[in-house]
Every structure is written in C-alpha cells, then in structure tokens.
Amino acid sequence: MNKKIVVLSGGVGGARFLEGLIQIIPQGKLFIIGNTGDDEQFYGLHVSPDLDTVLYTLSGVVNAKQGWGFKNETYNVMQQLTNLGNNDWFKLGDKDLAVHIHRTNLLKQGKKLSEITDELVGKFGLTVKLVPMTDDSVKTFIKTAHGRISFQEYFVKNRWQDEVLDIIYSSAEKTKPAPGIIDAILSSKGVIISPSNPLVSIDTILSIPGIRAALIKTKAKITAISPIIAGETIKGPAVKMMKEMGIEASALGVAQHYRDFLDVMIIDTKDKELKRRIEKLGIKTVVTNTIMKNNKIKKELAQIVVNTV
Amino acid sequence: MNKKIVVLSGGVGGARFLEGLIQIIPQGKLFIIGNTGDDEQFYGLHVSPDLDTVLYTLSGVVNAKQGWGFKNETYNVMQQLTNLGNNDWFKLGDKDLAVHIHRTNLLKQGKKLSEITDELVGKFGLTVKLVPMTDDSVKTFIKTAHGRISFQEYFVKNRWQDEVLDIIYSSAEKTKPAPGIIDAILSSKGVIISPSNPLVSIDTILSIPGIRAALIKTKAKITAISPIIAGETIKGPAVKMMKEMGIEASALGVAQHYRDFLDVMIIDTKDKELKRRIEKLGIKTVVTNTIMKNNKIKKELAQIVVNTV
Q1: A97 in contact with B at a CB cutoff of 8 Å?
Q2: Which positions in chain A touch B44 (Cβ < 8 Å)?
Q3: Which CATH number fits the domain A5-137+172-308, given the four candidates 3.30.390.50, 3.30.70.120, 3.40.50.10680, 1.10.260.40?
Q4: By the CB < 8 Å criterion, does B110 face chain A?
Q5: What residues contact B45, with CB distance under 8 A and at least 6 apart?
Q6: Is the predicted pLDDT of residue B278 greater than 90, yes or no?
Q7: For chain B, what is the mean pLDDT?
C-alpha cells in the first residue's frame, strides 16, 4: 500500500518525535512538511533551521544536547567572520555552514528549495520525504512594542524576552504549497501534527494557501501531540507566546487551536484531567507519557500516535 | 610629500615582493593595483585569489610554504561540502572561506569590490592602499585544444598541463579601472611592476582600458622586476605560457613585453649577460639578487627597486 503518513513539523520538538516515528514505520512511508517561516539569510547564506534540524536529527548527526546543529562541531569560520566585524548572535558551525553554502549555491543556480531538500535528504542517507511547506518566501515576523522583528531576532538574538503583540506570516498569501503537499494530505493514511510550537511552526505551515483546506477536506485521521505539558513546554517560547496572544497555554488550548481539522489529541498523563474537556470539543483524546526523555518512550509515543491514524 | 609608489601585483610573487617593500617604506605610501582576472565563483562564493594573497601575506597570516591561504588553517567546511557531493579541486580553508562569505555578502548588498577590499585591508591591520584593477567583471580564460577554460581550471584543476593557444581577458574592453587608479599612476612617485606572471597577472591589469595609457603617459619612473631567472620561474606557469604564446621566456622577453612604458628592468645576477641586450631597448637594467629566499634579500631587493623610481 502506497499511502503515506503526513507529518507537519517544526524544529527540535518535531524532529525528536520523528526520531521515534522512523523506528516504527519505514522512512519511505513518511511525508514530512517542514516549516520554513524561520528561514533567514545569515552572512548572505540561506539558512533553513527547521528543515536542517529534521535532517540532522533523523540522520543521527545532530548535537542532541542542544537539539540543533551538528555534534562534534567546530566554529572556525564563525570566529573569522566575527574577526571581520560581523554580528555574531547567530552562531553557525563549520559543518552546518557547509550545508548553507551548498543550499545557497543551488538556489542561486535556480533550483527550488524542495529539490535541494530532496537531494539533501539523500546525501544524509535518509529515505523519508521531507518537503518545505513552500518553495516561495514566507517569513515569520514578531510584532513587539519596539517594532517588527524577524523570528530569529526574537528567538535567538533577544532570547524571546519581547512581549509578542502579533505574529505575521509575511507574504504567505502570495505563496503556494511545495509540489506534492496537497496530494499527500488528501491521499494520506493519516496526518500527524508534531509537538511543535503551534504559533510559529504549525500555524506558519497552515498559513500557506490550501494546506488548512486540505486538512479539513482529507478523509485521513488527523492527530496532534500537545507540545504543552502541565502548562509548560520542554523547550522554547510556546507558552509565553500563547499567553501573550490570548490563547490558553495548555493541551486544551492547543486542541481548540486545531479544532477545525483535528480528530485525535495526544496529551500527557500530567494533563489527564483535561481529557474530558478536550473530548467535549469532539476530539478523541489519548493520555500517555509524551515527555520523550529516552528512546523507549519516544518509540512508545510514536506507536500510540500511529495507532490513532 | 603625498606622492605614492604604485605597484602592479598578481598573487604569490607580487605579495612576496611587497612583503619586502613594506619594511622599507611606510604602508601609507603604497598604492597596490591587484589582479582580479583570476577571480572565480566557488560554491557560489566570490573568491579573489590575488587580492587575498596580498592581504594574507602583508598581514603575516599567510601559509608561507604554499604562498597563499592562511597558516594554521582547517578544512572542516570543505570536507562537508565534499560529503555533499561538491567538486573538491579548489580547496578552501575555513578562515579563507570566512573572507569569501564576508565578501560575497557585501557584494550582494551592493558594495563595490574596491570598497570591500579597502575595508578588508583595515580589518587585516594594514594601512596600504590595495585596489582591485576594476570593480567590473573581467575573467581570464585560457584557450586550449579542448576549448576555453577559466584560469583557475587551467591553473589549479589541470595543473597548467594544457598547451596555451591564447589568453582571453573576457569583457575587459567593457570595464573601467577602479576609482583612483589612473590618478595614482599619473601622480605617482614611481611605478613598480612586481615579479608576477606577465601574461595572466600584469597583462590582465593592463587589459583594463586606460591603465596602459596612463603608464605610458605618467612622468613617474616605471621599474619591473623580472619573474624569470635563468629561464625559470620560482613558481607557476609563466615560462611555459610565454613559450607557448611565442614570447621569449627570459628577462629580455619580459623587458620587450613591457617596453611600451618601461624605464628600468631589474634582473637576477644569473641573467647578467642579458643586461646589454635589454639596455639596447632603451631600458636601464639593474643586476642584483632577485631570488627572495630570506627576508634580508627581500628587503635589499625592495630597496634597490625603490632607488630606481
């Protein structure tokens, strides 16, 4: 059977979930839609943080402690760029930079980001399908009291200390999904919304015209894993951002956020008292251990999610 | 007095000569015109080999053994680029790559190569004036039996094994000299043609409209150091290229090549029997030790050259 499981993924959280998933279903059965709203030009090089985090994590070369970048990385180019007077708030390792140089060079030659990503998947020894949400340019901006800043500026440079007044998926309305995405959703065996930031990872993907409609239309089951556990996240600013945007920062808030298309919600045992309230929304709710602190739990979570779709 | 000494320079040979020169005259008195005909895009990055060799050599960070690139260099990015399937015939170190990333980024932002070079000179702690021959694009091609190839392909990839049928300074006729060059030549205290390859370093500079005419017009003395000593060069393909182009591969051949504008020729003691024949061309000839095998000889040579202009 040719039907694939589609996964919407941001960076670290999504990649960690996918790490479990590829241990229980063949990579060839996976169609991963990656967020590119956080893509940025650094030193003139095109950086796709979320696509790379998925690539590096699934191929086992990631710096597992920080969740992104390569393990055993060096920073020789970065040191020299800093010596030459460049800003150094976005630190790129040497192996990582090679990927950005390679990608930027191919983009300059006219290749599409989706073609380049496909090629990189092979170079990293993977057989999943990994597709950027779009080949067009979308950029996530954060509106703050002192103006509009890029997501990376908010996230890395300012360490998410600014109050979020609004989130803008700039130019999203002019884009279209990368080739294959709509078909994959409509014909999929199931769709998984990974435990990524709902506002700046998943919503960014949903901002691409046609993707949300395809999720609503597909006959496949759609399951989300809550990135919020007992009012907190493992990593990153999701809770703070949701509160500032007036969204309840809980698994219930996430379920409400996705209720347009969501069939099943996976929540942590710490949130079991939310099950009844989520099910009232018409969303089947599964309670399990969602903190992927070891590979056993990672695989068990993946199996539970796969069983729902 | 504000008059400067102008030096036309290619890569390694020119840089080594300049290393002596900055020890006997203040850097601020030097106006160096660098060859950019060998500039190339590698992995989408703009590489200016000759400008960088001058920068790295004069600032003391060069790999003295090979004559180009940084000392204590690493190749971590290159290794990864090769892993990603890129051609690896042009090896760029990490520190070196940082310079190319920086330069390419500034070019993309609309800065001129001359502005960027000026800024790099400062970052490398130098006070010489170093100016690319032009801000426009000129590319040296070598015509071979199997077609036209770029200079770097001829030089690095094919290790100058092809027979040179012709040398093409592509688009040179459409370019103009970088700001300040013509004025510097016309108002200079003296002009030095460094011991660089006459065909692919100096002639490339001379291919920029206006530069040769300024050399003919200037009242300043013009002195060249022969890169050919007893029919050989210290490094590189000058002798082979000259022979294949039908030019006598000797200090006499070099003097004849520059006779339009040349006042003084510096030749090696090994070539002392050529002195009379060069002087017959109306070119004053100084015989000295031109093999810069240690710093003492380098400085002595520089002093002798400076005394002639």
Answers
A1: yes
A2: 101, 104-105, 108-109
A3: 3.40.50.10680
A4: no
A5: A101, A105, B92, B97, B100, B101, B103, B104
A6: yes
A7: 96
How far apart CA A116 and CA A130 sit, in angstroms, is 10
Interface confidence: ipTM more than 0.95: no
Q: Taking 80 as the threshold, does the pLDDT of residue A88 lie above it? A: no
Do residues A132 and A7 lie in contact, with contact meaning Cβ atoms separated by under 8 Å? no
> Does B187 lie at the interface with A, CB-CB under 8 angstroms?
no
> Is residue A74 a contact partner of residue A34, using CB atoms and an 8 Å limit?
no
* Residue at token pair 């600013």: A237
Q: Where, residue-wise, is CATH 3.40.50.10680 in chain B?
A: 5-137+172-308
B87 touches chain A (CB under 8 A): no
DSSP code per residue over B244-266: HTT---SHHHHHHHTTTT--EEE
Beta-sheet pairing, A129-132 with B139-144: unpaired
Q: Residue B208 half-sphere exposure, CB side, CA atoms within 13 Å?
A: 29
C-alpha distance from A281 to closest chain B C-alpha (Å): 48
Per-residue pLDDT reduced to its tens digit, A215-246: 999 999 999 999 999 999 988 899 999 999 99
pLDDT digits (tens, 9 = 90+) for A39-84: 999 999 999 999 999 999 999 999 999 999 999 999 999 999 999 9
